[in-house]
């Protein structure tokens, strides 16, 4: 020890006494390595142990102030790219907004339809990427029977909405077809306020 410093056995430099942790078993009451060396040694030892167990070891990444590393995509992004999470130590979600959105869509498909994104993409490919009703617009919305839960196909927004507006009623859909073909239901006036339905 010299002038309030101590030589560190790890990094071979003189370090202020405050840079050493206490160790009552030592003559000077301080550990032989500075806090930085102990932390580095502990981290390296931890990584070796985890690797020996076959576990993935995450390397420490330097992140600038106002940014955070997303462990999902591995990108460092500004805090504006994260949702708030009051229970987290830094007040931010564990995944960035983009990763949460991707996982949210995948989770919705699994929960709602029991299918994966690969299953959906396979259906879209089988439909040549087009809505299986209008055969024009891109297929983006998974359609299912509200009674059985069975997935019927992938539709465009307009066709999916139209089926929903018709209440999934095949008879209503047949009347729409009849109407579009010019066979609209036209009541005949028999007397004032009295109509006769066509047979």
UniProtKB/TrEMBL annotation:
State a single Pfam family of this protein.
Answer: Endonuclease_7
Q: Classify the source by domain of life.
A: Bacteria
The protein depicted here goes by the name Endonuclease VII domain-containing protein
Organism field: Streptomyces yangpuensis
Which InterPro entries does the entry link to?
A: Endonuclease_7, Endonuclease_7_sf, His-Me_finger_sf
Molecular-function GO term, any one: endonuclease activity
Q: Which keywords describe this protein according to UniProt?
A: Endonuclease, Hydrolase, Nuclease
């Amino acid at each position: 020890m010299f002038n309030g410093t101590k030589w560190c056995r790890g990094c071979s430099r003189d370090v202020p006494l405050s840079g050493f942790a206490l160790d009552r078993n030592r003559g000077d009451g301080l550990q032989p390595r500075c806090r930085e060396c102990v932390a580095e040694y502990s981290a390296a030892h931890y990584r070796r142990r985890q690797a020996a167990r076959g576990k993935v070891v995450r390397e420490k990444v330097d992140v600038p102030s106002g940014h955070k590393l997303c462990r999902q995509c591995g990108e460092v992004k500004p805090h504006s790219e994260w949702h708030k999470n009051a229970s987290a130590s830094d007040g931010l979600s564990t995944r960035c907004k983009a990763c949460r959105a991707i996982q949210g869509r995948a989770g919705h498909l699994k929960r709602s339809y029991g299918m994966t994104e690969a299953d959906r993409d396979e259906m879209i490919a089988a439909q040549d990427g087009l809505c299986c009703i209008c055969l024009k617009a891109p297929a983006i919305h998974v359609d299912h029977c509200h009674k059985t839960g069975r997935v019927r196909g992938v539709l465009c927004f307009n066709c999916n909405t139209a089926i929903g507006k018709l209440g999934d009623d095949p008879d209503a859909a047949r009347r729409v077809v009849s109407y579009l073909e010019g066979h609209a239901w036209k009541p005949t006036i028999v007397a004032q306020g009295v109509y006769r339905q066509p047979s």
